[in-house]
Amino acid sequence: MPLIPLNCPLCGASLSIDSTKDATICESCGKPFIVKDAIINSYVGGAAAPAPAPAATPAAEKPDEAPTIKTNINVEEKSRWEMNGTFEPTTRTRNIYHKHKDFVIDEDVLDKYAGDEMIVEIPDSVKSIGYCAFSGNDNVTEIIIPESVTKIGYCAFSSCTNLKKVTIKGRVTSIAERAFLNCTALTEVNIPDSVNRMGEYIFENCRSLEDVKLPQSLVAIGDCAFKDCRSIKEIIFPPNVRQLGQKLFENCKSLTSLELPSSLTEIPDSAFKDFVSLTNVTIPSSVVTIGESAFEGCACLEKIDLPDSIKTIGSRAFCNCSGLSGITVPDSVETIGARAFLGCSHLKYADVPDTVQNMGIRVFDGCTSLKRVSIPPCSVRISDGAFKGFTKLKNIEIPEGIARIGDNAFEDCIRLEEIKIPKSVKIIGTDAFKGCQKLKLVEGVENLNIIKLMDVFAGTPFLDINLQRKGLCRHCGGEFNGFLTKKCKDCGRPKDY
Fold it and tell me: What is the rounded CA–CA span in Å between residue 155 and residue 178?
């Protein structure tokens, strides 16, 4: 008679019952209960069960071997419930292996570990570690995964806050999302070369993790895989990585440089967004596209060399990279997205080639340290306020093809001394060059009347020179009265030149 130890689901008393029966009566409280429900409660649900009675252990069994209990139970197939809207329970054999009643294994999947051991070696019968199998276990410090395991499931070891070491012996091919999320004590994990994909948030907030060796077979890494891993100092990408997720290294404060793999053809959108500690990155010549916001918020990035292979720089690609001192766009680039360098407040020069065919609006918004910048002929307008307040800008060439210069486009560019307006410009906005205190020479505005000149060039030496040349008040453009006092008819101010 196959007696097994379990707890009464009604009073909690320790019992030994016949697992082949449908129901039995508790010897302690005298109340009946369903045997299969008691088994699920004691083993599948993870509750601790009492130690087996001496008579239940065969004499030939070694004391340290884990007994195997087999029982037929009804299992809810959730997929059928979700797909058909009907519940069809099926009866199949669930094998429950336990050592100190710790492991719950459904067929070859480890569903739950509910023990309190510090070092846990997963049984060789396991092929897959299931959903949240160890999640939240505060006791385990080391886990040994056997060669039989091929998959590590979603959140398998998440929030095991005392887990320090994970040894994976062999054939794991995939590690799912959030597998080691919030394992704050984890310092060591070996990822075998059999792994080719790593899921999203896999090591998020593993803040004690210092060194990660990525497997040579790896081809894809999910979003935020190393987010908040504050102790990682070095990451070496394997040569075959082709797909990178978003915000891979957000808040990785100890990691300062990256060398991207030569297999990479695209830096995806937001791949290194908010990677605030990054100071240096090497982009291989295989890269054709830098995605939107790819390096946005990399405030410590000081220099970036763009290879000749690049054709597209996405919108906001280097937005708020306030540490960048200069940028040279290669001749291969055809498109620069809107606000690509917005907020690069320490950018001193930006050399953009004539070969650029498409350039978005406000590419250099907020780059107030620019001393020189070139605008490609593909641009049809300079946006309102595009270079407003660029106090260090000395030289800018407006190419033929620009049709409009927007309102306040160059307002308060106090170091700008001269500028040439091409014939293609049909509209110059209000206060376009207002407050340019050193602007004395402007070509291409000979046909503008005084009213328009005052509307565009207020507060510039260029306007003063033109008003004086015409004998008009430099304050309002009005004519003067009187031979002795020479007061302005409009504002009443005396002639002061």
Answer: 5
Q: Which domains does the chain have, with CATH numbers?
A: 3-65 (no CATH), 102-255 (3.80.10.10)
Instruction: Assess contact for 23 and 34: CB atoms under 8 A.
Output: yes
Q: Give the SS3 label for residue 400.
A: coil
Across 123-160, b (16+ Cβ under 10 Å) vs e yields beebbbbbebbbbebeebebbebbebbbbbbbbbbbbb
pLDDT digits (tens, 9 = 90+) for 242-276: 889 989 998 888 999 999 988 899 999 999 998 98
Residue type, 121: E
Amino acid identity of residue 46, one-letter, is G
pTM confidence score: 0.69
Q: Report, as an integer, the average pLDDT of 452-459.
A: 92
Distances (CA, A) of 105 to 124, 126, 145: 11, 8, 15
CA distance 224 to 245: 7
pLDDT at 313 over 70: yes
pLDDT for 369 beyond 80: yes
In this structure, the dihedral spanned by the alpha carbons of residues 52, 55, 56 and 61, taken in order and rounded to 10 degrees, is: 100
Q: Which amino acid is at 49?
A: A
Find how far residue 136's CA is from the centre of its chain: 25
Tokens of 23: 């129901």
Q: Give the containing element (helix H, strand E) for 404.
A: strand 404-405
In sequence order, what E strands does 51-133 have? 68-75, 90-97, 103-106, 109-113, 119-121, 128-129
For 492, the token pair is 């009443």
